[in-house]
């Protein structure tokens, strides 16, 4: 069983005053080997300087609210940026889909042209053969 130390009011006030004057609660708790640690320092400070303690907490809460508000604003800004990036990506996708469709149409046109060229070559060869055959029969 741990033995609890009993501290005088004068000692408690001294620790609270040191904390009030800017010393760190962790340093005070270690230096004086307080059984309650930093929480003991905070409790004594709250007891001997209640107005300061509550004002500090209000400021802390206010700054926490400001931090939350800033985080919320940053989140909103990030959402706007992400939405803009998404819209830009969707626009690029639509453009690429149109280009793909145009490429398909161009391929169809080129295939049709190639078929025409092949047919034309076949026609030329057959006409050449007809002309040569007719020449031979004439002589």
Automatic annotation (TrEMBL):
Lineage top rank: taxon: Bacteria
Keywords: Coiled coil
InterPro entries hit by this protein: Homeodomain-like_sf
Coiled-coil ranges from the UniProt annotation: 69-106
Protein name: Transposase
The species this protein was found in: Williamsoniiplasma lucivorax
């Amino acid at each position: 069983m741990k033995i609890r130390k009993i501290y005088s009011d004068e000692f408690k006030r001294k620790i609270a005053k040191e904390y009030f004057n800017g010393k760190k609660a962790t340093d005070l708790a270690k230096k004086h080997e307080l059984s309650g640690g930093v929480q003991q320092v905070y409790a004594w400070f709250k007891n001997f300087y209640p107005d300061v303690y509550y004002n500090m907490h209000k400021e802390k809460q206010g700054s926490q609210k400001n931090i939350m508000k800033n985080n919320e604003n940053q989140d909103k800004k990030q959402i706007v940026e992400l939405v803009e990036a998404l819209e830009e990506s969707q626009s690029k996708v639509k453009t690429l889909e149109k280009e793909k469709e145009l490429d398909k149409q161009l391929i169809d046109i080129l295939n049709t042209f190639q078929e025409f060229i092949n047919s034309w070559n076949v026609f030329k060869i057959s006409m050449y053969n007809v002309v040569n055959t007719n020449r031979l029969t004439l002589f």
